[in-house]
Design a protein that fits this description.
The chain has three helices and no strands. It has 70 residues and is mostly helical. It has one domain. Helix 1 packs antiparallel against helix 2. It is elongated.
């Protein structure tokens, strides 16, 4: 069985409530990280690896574009 990383990722990307973002970001990051570790043990196709890499890039862009500048 593999980690479902797409649902937590989508929830975090779509969330509009700033109070919930940090927790959702952490859940999504954890799910993505777990799936990356699973793929190291049982390699899958290159497509999912690419999806994980792109999800992490988009996640970082999304997170920091919503962070207020001091």
């Amino acid at each position: 069985m593999h980690t479902d990383w797409k649902k937590p990722y989508q929830f975090a990307i779509r969330e509009q409530n700033p109070a919930m973002l940090e927790d959702l970001y952490e859940q999504a990051r954890h799910a993505i990280h777990n799936r990356v570790l699973e793929l190291e043990e049982n390699p899958a196709d290159a497509r999912e690896k690419g999806e994980l890499e792109e999800a992490l890039r988009q996640f970082i862009i999304h997170k920091y574009s919503r962070t207020p500048v001091s």
